[in-house]
Design brief:
With 613 residues, the chain is of the alpha/beta class. It has 24 helices and 20 strands. It has a seven-stranded parallel β-sheet, with helices on both faces. The protein has a six-stranded parallel β-sheet with strand order 8-13-12-9-11-10, with helices on both faces. It is elongated, with a radius of gyration of 27 Å. The relative contact order is 0.09. The structure holds adenosine-5'-diphosphate, magnesium ion and zinc ion. Adenosine-5'-diphosphate binds next to helix 3. It catalyses: Couples ATP hydrolysis with the unwinding of duplex DNA by translocating in the 3'-5' direction.
Length: 613
Amino acid sequence: ATPVFESPDAPCTPSAPAGRLDNTSTPYYAEAVSVLKSVFRLTSFRQNQLEAINATLDGKDVFVLMPTGGGKSLCYQLPAVCKTGRTQGVTFVISPLVALIADQVASLREKHVDVDCMSSLRTADDSRDVMRRLRSERKPAICYITPEKLRESNAMQDILAQLYEDKQIARFVIDEAHVIQSWGRDFRDAYAELHMLRERYRDVPIMALTATANKTAIQDIRTRLGLRDPLCLMQSFNRPNLFYAVQPKPSTKKKVVQSIAGFVKSQHAAHTGIVYGFSKVECEDLAAQLRNDYGLSAKHYHAGMDSQERSTTQEEWQSGSCKIIVATIAFGMGIDKPDVRFVIHSTLPKSMDGYYQETGRAGRDGDPADCILYYAHRDAVSRHHLIISDRNDKGLARTPDEKKRQLEDLSAVAQYCRNVADCRRSLILAHFNERFDSHLCPKGCDNCSRGGTVFRQLYTLEAQQAIRLFGEMAASMDRIALGHFKDVYAGRNRAKVRESGHDQLSLFGAGKKVDGDRIISAMLDADIFAIAREASASGWTNDYLKLGPQVDACLSGSLPVELTFRDNGPSVGQSRSAAKNVVSSKPPAKAKGKMKAGPSARAYAPLFEDDDE
Ligand code: ADP
Ligand code: MG
Ligand code: ZN
């Protein structure tokens, strides 16, 4: 059973049904294989590449959905240098990022592919040269162009019209095609006008490629580009050889380093990996400690380093002389090291999209690799406050839209981390609108490793009691610290609780029998509660609980509060010491059967201990 996508509604040729379409018996196959080897110096096609190449050489429209790093470029670069099939003329590639264009052009030139580009990075002279070549007999095989250049340059429009008349346009390729959606985050005006390609150059086949697998988005892209009965090649985003886990983040920096070092030394002593940190300073500190205190071969990498230093570090890591790179997310674009055995996030990633891409750099060779995320509620709260503060990381004012989007991203990541029951793989894939049967993830993530079956339980009543308890407490207390509220709700009879007299309230301990802390987290996720953070005079920050916008919906019962559990997983209220004894072994899904060692034992602690104190 392969995971399935929600099927798009518009007519679309299904992706190569088994047995019907033999991609090795097409007239293009022999040349495609030979070009793959001679020009691209690769040995075999990845999933869907050959299908895309065959279809476009056949003059068909093609829609390719492939995760980032999946190998979309080859789908259009290879046919552009073939001689059989629909190859006459220039392949025009519309791509939104000038930096990406520059990379691809450089890499193609290294392979002696005749390629040119038109972007804002080029001088007017350069552009004139490119246009002169397009008019001449010596046309490039591929011409990259930004949508803006395509729209703004009248000369370019004239050239395209002439080329079309002379049947010298092989195909149009729309890379990062999701940019066309008007409601998308990366939307660019000029992409919206790409529908003119089909209108003006009716017979030129179009290939659209994206890594955004959202049903509505796919539909939208196809309609906007006017794709005609396209071959839709959509593949699962699942990475079966990656093991996903979320670890409770220890309370001090020192313990975090200790935990990371311990994990690396016990599981990946001689392996290459990436540790993602939040800030430049954090990365430098973390790398230094891993080096100095634990003797690990670690170096930092971030955008604040000069480019010479950056490329030296990257080369050392790439060649294996440095094993661990501790980096901000500036590290990764264009990284293609096959044998990355672990990716550790020392703090929350910015979004689920980001998490997928960052963890996606592990295990490209198909061998097992670990993806570990350290989560602490305090990190989520800090991030929240960073976002609602007025400046973004570039020091620019955040727009309300930007804030809203970033808060949504953060909330999705936090919910993922707090989920201790559902299969991580299905949670990640659900983010890309892909349904994934968690039975296909036997022990491929921490939650599945816990065994048992997932069940959900409603705690709306308990949530309503929490709101009432909050009301009772608020009658005698100005600001209610989050930790204090949790103690009172869970009925923890601490000195501070007794001092406040809150142990005398009728609802004291209302969340005692259930998992009170998780209910509060779920209520925070659902905006029933919210957090206000205040800096105290001593420089510490305090988190106070307040009511959120959804409080009435919860009280009226229209917004149910639900938790997921595993029926024989570790009970979440367990103490830290009891939790340490929970050990599950996992042999990650063997992708190519190349895994050497047997199952390695890993310890998982429940996530909902109080890490806030
Ligand atoms: P995408 O655009 O889908 O994110 P790219 O086209 O940039 O991905 O390719 C990612 C990496 O995969 C590149 O380094 C490329 O060389 C490599 N790659 C692509 N196709 C193959 C293949 N058939 N075999 C091995 N490596 C490949
Ligand atoms: Mg790409
Ligand atoms: Zn799983």
